[in-house]
Give the backbone structure.
Amino acid sequence: MADQEVEAIRRCQRWTRDAFQNDSQLRFLVQALQTSGCEIPDGFVRCIPCKQKAAGGFVPASEKHPRMVVLCADRLKFKSLVRSTLIHEFIHYFDMCSRKMDFTDCRQHACSEIRAANLSYDCNLTMELRRGNFQLRGAREACVRRRAKLAVQFNPNCRTPVTPDGDTGGPGSAAAATVIDAVDAVWHACYEDRSPFNDSNS
């Protein structure tokens, strides 16, 4: 492993510890998970080099590995991004473990993505400016919609097969429509759903 990757992993681990110690929203979420019987074992959060655009992800348990939250150390250049990614992925864990959401269902996956984008720091002004998005009016809702659609489109259960005329899921395709429909169908209920925070810790 290159020295640069080792340093990125150490930085990610340091910022992760800081988030768990000092971010009240993350600590509240961890407490809500534990109260719901959702375990957070040692090694649940892992900083690794991912070589991809994603900042991280929630990995469900399988025969090959336990469930975990992966943080892409080589993509996380700011402490605030580590904090936001942790909250985002722990919202997914809460939805899967405590609320029994099924991510093979496009609408349930879309709901969790809406909640994760909205309840984390994903769509605050600083994050959006770093992405080069300068919209002000309706910026938060636009960001949450965009990020939910981007996430759901990678769910293989939310894509339609390639059609004889070459439909591969690009803009305007049947697959794209499936993603948009899923997000739109659950938008209002899930955008307003702040569980487990409700109005007490936001």
Summary: Residues 3-22 form the longest helix (20 residues). Residues 161-169 have pLDDT under 50 and may be disordered. The CA atoms of residues 123 and 140 lie 6 Å apart.
